[in-house]
Every structure is written in C-alpha cells, then in structure tokens.
Design brief:
Order of helices and strands: HEHEHHEEHHEHEHEHEHHEHHHHEEH
Helix content: 40-55%
Distance between the termini: 35 Å
Number of helices: 16
Number of strands: 11
Amino acid sequence: MKNPFRYGCVVDGEYFCPRIELERQLRSYAESGQNVVIQGERRMGKTSLVRKAIAGMRGERLLYIDLHSIKTLADFCRRVMIGVAGVTDKMSFLKKALSLAYRLRPAITADPNTGALSITVDAKAASEPESLSEVMKTIEKLAKDGGLCVVFDEFQDILKLEDSERMLAEMRSTIQFQADTPYFFLGSVRNEMLHIFSDYESPFFKSALPFEVGAIDSAEFTRFLMKRFAKGDRRISAETVGSILAFADGVSGDVQELCDALWEVSDEGTEISDADIPKALKVVFARERNGFDAAVADLTPNQFTVLRGLAELGDVGVYSDEFMRFVQKASPGAVKRALNRLEDCRLVYVYHKGYRFANPFFKEWIKTEL
C-alpha cells in the first residue's frame, strides 16, 4: 500500500484530519462577507483548512492567491492571474482575463516538453504602478458575479516589495467597498502580520477579524493518525503518537512528515514504538540534508553558536548565565544581532518570551548530527 501520510502540500479527502468547528466558523464568516486574518505557525494546515471550508460551501468559488516569496509587483500581478485561471476554466481564461486586465496581456503558455500550462503577463506592464489597480479591479469584477471568497496566502510577504505601504493602501481602498466579498488573509510570520493588521498607521489596521489556527486537538489527531497507520497493517500506541506530537509541537505538517518517515522504516504487521523515531529522523535528515547544510553555511560562527545554544539549551533564556556561558560570553548586543539574523533567515521565531525553531527537524539535526 502507498504511504498514507502527506505533508508539504495542500491536503484534502482522507488525508485531511477534520477540524469541524474551525471549518464551521470559517464558512460562517465567508457567508457573511467578513474579512478574516488567519494566523498560525508554519505548516499548521491553514491553507488546507481554508480550502476544505470553502469547498464545503455550495455556490462559493475560491480565488486563491499565493504570495509566498514574491519579489516584485510583476510577481504579484502574475500570482493574481494564476488565481483567476483557477476560478475560470482554462478555455475561457484568456477571454475572461483579457477583458478584465487587458493592460497586463495575460497569456497561457505550454511547456514544449511536458505540455504543462503556465500563466504569463507582460513584465513591463506588470511592473508599472497602475498594474496594481488593474489586478485589484480584476478581483472586484470577478466578485460581482457573486459567490467568491478571496484568499491571500502568506500575505506578510507583500512587505518584501518596494513601496509595500503604498500597495497595501491601494489594496485596502478597493477591498473596503466590497462588503459582500470575504477576504481571507493567511500568514505564518506573526510579527509581520501584526504590523499589517494591528499597527495603527497601517492601511489594514483592524480591517479583518483575527482567527487563530492552532494545533489539532491531540485526542482527535491521535485517533486520526492511528487509523492511518492501521490502513497499512501497522500498529502504533497512543503513547507513541503522543511522543510524535510532542516532538513536532503539534504542528500538523511536521507530525505528518515524521509519520511518513516512520511508515518508511516499518513493515506491515509490525508495531511502531518510540524506538523507531530516531530511525525515522535519519530518513528526514537524509531528505533535507542539502537545505540544512545551506542554512548553516550562510551563518557566521557567532550566529551558528547562538543557533546551537537555542537547540541545546531550549528554554533557559537567551540572556541567562547558562546561555551566555554556552555562547562563550559573547556580549548581549552580539547575541541580539545573531538572533535578529536567525529570525531574518526564518530559522527561528519569537514564541511567547523565548525562541522556537521553525523546523523541529533542523533543531534535532543540529543537536545530533553536528
């Protein structure tokens, strides 16, 4: 049987662990035209949850726009047009898109080798300031057909763009008049999302209802995971599932990745135990080694020492005597600069009053492999 666990992508169907109450709340907001800012740690399943919620609504279309790692205004325009293509069928896309955003000259191109379709826009036109207004009006015109929910995923990455504050102001000036069209803004970098939606001077200040996506209820998730293992004649105790959840801090994507690796190191008819977890971690390390090596290679010796201290010492406090001894008595200023760099690289993030690794496997790799 094929591996019953999926991670690193949007999941649905039997691969999706139901979150009934959250789905119900999101549908209610969509029905009422409520704008929502959806926050949660990376790989917590925000995108899968929103897609599942909207898919369960009769007559509701999803305009999904992924802003992950956008670099330019032209990137933004192209991502919007990709979303438009997802709402309309491919045959009518060009006619629809050209009527809505003619200045961008959107086109569908096919890879000559694979035949895969992709969306392009005129790079010069899409780089002009007026293009933002055009793509926002494109969304507005689509919404007039009714039954549209607009989702901006990784919305905080818009801050990477030049003149992002002006862009946010122009977007807000269009969105605020669409009272019947719900906009869902998903983000995984909390401080940046707070800047957009909680900063008094931001155009999006208090413009959307906050909605938190946390860890799946442990009892519900445990039952789901045990059933998934059982599909392939593998047994696992609730206690071992608890160890998996604890390692991954309940982050669903990381939990599924570890379960995927546990499946690979086990055989049908066997029982998976805590003793199998280190073997599964070796599988994950082998898969992600290149990325881990690259992340470490970009750090200075002081930054790496601080990173190792976070991995080894956990929650002792970055300015505690124990931590300062570990980092060889580097000055508090040097430690702070190193932490800022690690945050900028998105290797760690502020969690409550301390720091947490964005990737628990990276943390374990540093502790056990370096």
